Give the backbone structure.
Amino acid sequence: MSTTETEHHSLAENTPTEPDNVGEHHASDLLYVQIFVLLFALTAVEVSTYFFDFGPSQLPVLLGIMVVKFAIVVAFFMHLRFDHKLFSWVFVSGLLLAVAVYGIMLTTFQYWQNL
């Protein structure tokens, strides 16, 4: 038996076919149904802002609901809640960087328009 065959054989034995502790890393079906109901209710509140006058608080209400829905989707459907915290930090830092760059670009357009 050659060394490559031995290395390949030992690698195949040590490679897991399924992740460990599968039950602990995923939400139950009941939790996904609860998340669906919550997201549905939040969407209904968002849609209601078009039929009822929230006055000057309409934009903050919509932005707040948007952030909550985004956090729920990212945490559960992207499985960041069940992954290592490093993945959450990488995701959040990338998101903050993107928002900062977008904000800088918007202020740049406003600045050059007023010259």
The chain has four helices and no strands. The radius of gyration is 23 Å. Helices lie at 3-14, 29-48, 58-77, 85-113.
